[in-house]
Design a protein that fits this description.
The complex is a heterotrimer. Chain A is α+β, with helices and mostly antiparallel strands. Chain A has helices spanning about 35-40, 95-105, 115-125, 130-140, 150-165, 190-195, and strands spanning about 5, 10-20, 20-30, 60, 65-70, 80-85, 185. In chain B, the strands form 3 sheets. Chain B has a 5-stranded antiparallel beta sheet with strand order 4-5-8-6-7. Chain B has a 4-stranded antiparallel beta sheet with strand order 9-10-11-12, sandwiched between helices. Chain B has a 3-stranded parallel beta sheet with strand order 1-3-2, covered by helices on one side. Classes of the chains: A alpha+beta, B alpha+beta, C alpha+beta.
Chain lengths: ~200, ~350, ~800
Amino acid sequence: MSETTIESGAKVRLALTVNGEPAEVLVDAYKTLLEALREDLQLTGTKHGCELGECGACAVLVDGEPVLSCLALAVACDGRDVQTVEGLQANGALHPLQDAFADLGGSQCGYCTPGILMTAKALLDRTTEPTRDEIKDALSGNLCRCTGYLQIVEAVERAAEQVRSGANGCGQVRAGAGEHGSPKPVDEDSPAKAGAQ
Amino acid sequence: MMRLPPFRYRAPRTVGDAALWLAESPGDTMLVAGGTDLLPNMKRRQQTPRTLIALRGIAELCAITTGGGVGAPGEPSASGESPSPRSGRVGIRIGAGVTLSALVRNEEIRATLPALWQAALQVATPHLRNMGTLGGNLCLDTRCTYYDQSHEWRKAIDFCMKKDGRTCWVATSSPRCLAVSSTDTAPALQALGARVRLVSAAGVREVSVADLYENDGMQYLTRRADEILTEVIVPDTSGWRSTYWKLRRRGSFDFPVASVAAAARLDGDGRVEAVRLVAGAVASRPLSAPKAEALLVGERLTDERIAAAAQAVYEVAKPMDNTDFELVWRKKMVTALATYALRELRGDDTSAVRLRLARQVL
Amino acid sequence: MSAVIGKPRRRVDGRAKVTGQTRFADDLILPRMLHCKLLRSSVPHARIVRIDTAKAAAHPGVHLVLTGDAFPVAYGVLPVSHDEHALCRDKVRFVGDPVAAVIARDEATAAAAVDLIEVEYETLRTLAAPDDSLAHPEPRIHEYGDTGNVHKAVSLQFGDVDAAISGADHVFDDVFFFEGNTHLPIEQHATVAAKDGDGKLVVWSSTQTPHYLHRSLAKALQMPAAHIRVMATPNGGGFGGKSDPFNHEVVVAKAALMLDRPVKICLTREEVFYCHRGRHPVLMRFRTGVTRDGKITGVDLQTLLDGGAYGSYGVASTFYTGALQTVTYDIPTYRFRGCRVFTNKPPCGPKRGHGTPQGRFGQEVQLDKIAERLQVDPADLRLNIIAPPDSLTANYLRIGTIGLAECIRTVVASSGWKDTFRRLPLGRGVGLACSSYLSGAGLPINWNDLPHSGVQLKLDRSGGVTAFCGATEIGQGSDDVLVASVAEVLGIEPFDIRAVTGDTDLTPVDLGSYSSRVTLMMGNAAIEAATRARDLLARAVSRKLEVPVERLTFRDRRVFDRDDPGRGVTFQEAVCMAEAEFGTIGTTGSYTPPKSPAKFKGGGVGPSPTYSYTAAIVEVEVDPDTGWLVVPKIWIAHDIGRSLNPTLVRGQVEGGVYMGLGEALMEEQAFRRLPPRLSNALVHKFPSMLEYKSPTFLEMPEVHTDLIESMDPAGPFGAKEVGQGPLLPIMPALANAVYDAVGVRIDEIPITPEKVLKALQSKAAGKPARVGPASFPENVPWPDALLVTPPWEGGDGRASNEPVKKSKRKAEAGVEATAGVRR
């Protein structure tokens, strides 16, 4: 990184690598990476829930590490490699994490999903055999209000399996009738059971 | 969306340049490393520096070196080495720009400085540890639920003493600001007898971590506005055990609302040769507990001794009603944290308690 | 038999959500778009003396500054509480009440200009809590409401409850408190408004209720609803927090009309806390008579709700604190008194469970105390008093199927309850609680005879089907229910169907994604629309293939002879045959809930086509030395009626458990009142994601979920609700578990370590082993009770002491009050 001075109120030209492609953009010097991505690069897949580092919704990968784009100065990201949810697909196929999240209930409203997917991707880039505790720890900086997290953890586990088995996201992984989710029908021969006494 | 106010941005490549630039106008210039503390504060207009000097591009701040032979950043040769608890030798030097994640990934720190390692691992969240630095955590602004609010919110209480107002709403008769020291790494480093290096255009000095802080929510650092905290120097701690216990509501995100760092050297007989106990997040600075330490030196860590020492740590804690949790209970929890810490130093398996409190295996 | 229904399946909008393609309101960027920021009140209660906007208007980049003068007409979600103006006109009622708006070229400019607006206030007394509001009828926060600062006080009596309680073997009298909390959707509310090409107003908003927003915009802006198009963007979480028409929506709509440019607003997190409409803080007193064999003889319930500064859904919330107790357990006599007061805080409203969790908490904890006193297993006590299926309750709610007994037995078995309850070592405990919930409110907010949900289908020559419905996707999976229902009936794949939802121009009205109504109501409408389309196709195919209509089967994208499956046509061919014969193929379906037999005033809150049931067991570990508590595991069984997509159903159950656990352990919408001698200030204590404590991955326990399928005839394919019910039992189950673990009662929510330790210390000192409210206030101005005779005593659903309007009686004459006799 070269020595830099940018005057207050100026705009600054950034050259980044975004999702593997070079991107040049002129942004207000006060902007964070979050604002530059959403407002100047129109990459609105990255979300925001507080802009103060308190929710994890804006997580992206910078040089492969999950960071909060709301607390990263855009000017400080000049020359760096940024990955967002828009770049998670490859070769026309979803990333195994995307498939697993879609299939296994890892995403409900979908708003925290991009930040969680990117954080999970960094985890799977580091290890393809994460334990359940490692998954929870890695994602402990991402809040989700919909799912109760359990289906997210299962989706990451499923994706890790897929990555290990070499599948790189071709179509849907089989939606498992997990033991928790399987409906427990009331005995059809005894309708009274459903109605209680 | 919360947005930053305008600022002038400068990114030097050397500590020397940074110090020179900082000296130009230290009153309205601030240093930013990870930005995880300063940028939220700026968005809430608690701090509105005209100029930001970014330290992340300074490679020399990011080194972790072991032994005493390596020169400090910004200074050709180390001087006034920290007296270590035992040998007087430097054990490890950690650049202030080392991220908390990098610190946690360092196996030597994990093995030799468990208190620091545990403290760093429990800061905020994984993302914030990827961004935040050790120096940033040591200089963390003091926190208060009357202060860590937007400008609009603070206007609704007619502001407070720490920023734009006159009254400390935590205790309206208080002559000083009661904002809380919320750094995790400082109590750990204070217990480990660490020192920090402060570099300015005028020179270099080293102070102990204990002397870096003052018990004042506004003037909580003895660092001068023109100084850059460049390095943490931890003395050789061979023979020492250490640990850090943190209280917070959730296993992630939350700042400490009480903590206890402990370091001790035991003799072959299990008697305490030397010990440091530091309570965090219960005042405007980390508080050492000399009475508690005195109760332990020369003694075995029996349940009774531990209870007496924990009570003495409790007595130094001065929590106020300006963080999460009720202050009376927070204060009581200091006793529990000190007890857990000393039991762990004694060699007890405290992993089950740790799991319940920290919600993760450390 | 079914091809789609009941199978775990990727939701239809799943792909968009994992690729970042879902367009939330703040993701919309339009050419020439301007940005809006609101100036909000910095004082809790004051008259506005003067607003000076000159400096803001002159600020470079500012296009428009608005104040309350621009919004003379009030609106509100309930017809009885039109008490909101988009910007305050004469007074402000809480810190955060909006008083002015700036529209500028970008958000930073708008924010800078907002700082230049000067407002002079004449402060009024701060009413911080219900006892303040009860003690001080003046100054009134609103000039309407029952009396003083009482917004609404209601009193209903069903049978001779006093005799029933005084004649009981045991009388239990308990006071409970449930602290307020908020929804905290991760998406902050956002709205974009613009003029369409033809000059009409178009509004995209993160709303759960586009229909109510549509109506409110028409009223507040005084323009024909037909010239307004509201599109509900997918919500990044709602939970009830995006169910009201909001001031910021009205403001940007007005600004877009005035400027003829798109205008966007996206709230900050702090502003979302000020929108609130979350869980009411409720103080409650339960007096319950119980026989020695554990039957309830009567319940006398009083609730006091801290409503905050506006009406919102508050009148309904008030009734809901008392409505559903009778749907869960057999309560032969019942008196319910509820009172909502105004205070100078952000308005409370509907949060997941709407008014029900508070009363549910009190009743379920009291039942635990009853079981303890009677030395009965709490599971057996409940099994003995479950409300009967296919019956009318004392307050005239019609119950259909009840899977509660099955739910209780299931969690008792899966958790090993018989081996753990009262048998775990000190510091570990288990607790049980149950609940029931609406599958959609039986009565509309705006009383009329119109359907609650409509679905239109367009069948295309391509074989593609488009399903139109006003329902709103808030993450719960409503688009998936719509598509799955149509696919099932037409025998095609979900992927063949495009859902167009939440658009008041294109879609028939659905009242909105609240009250757990969408699956049941939209689902039934979708089935009706799809069945009508299938009938058209079947008639055409029947003629062509010369196969009787009743033998035609729709499956695997084919229409074929049941008796000769090779004889058939593709679905696309069938559509073409039908179009050739009948013209363009479009069908509609609609759903109107059955009329309620409750005819008394207030009887409109509580009726539902059917009710869901849930039982849960929570395990807790409590450190007796510190009070620190951890929940390692929860078992839950939910009577879902029928599980349409088990993956989504399980997600709703676990999400409800999560949110319930957050409320149980840590979530609080808490406020700070500065010392009155020094300040009038009353502020939200911590309007931030950091200090409003929402459980993380690390706090979420293991959850064992069982789904009970009671196949309710009122539900689509037998389905009931799942979005809200599973939240309800978690809070009381935790309280009961804490008692099992360490023998102290925490009679208030949240249950924090401080409270547990305090109760333990009290117990150790020989004082009551309890933390909770001491008493219920005596000075609530209760009205005379409406006296309603229960159905089994010959009642007709009317109050005996309520004057009945002639016209109303006439209108209801055709409706049979089918009072089921059950005893």
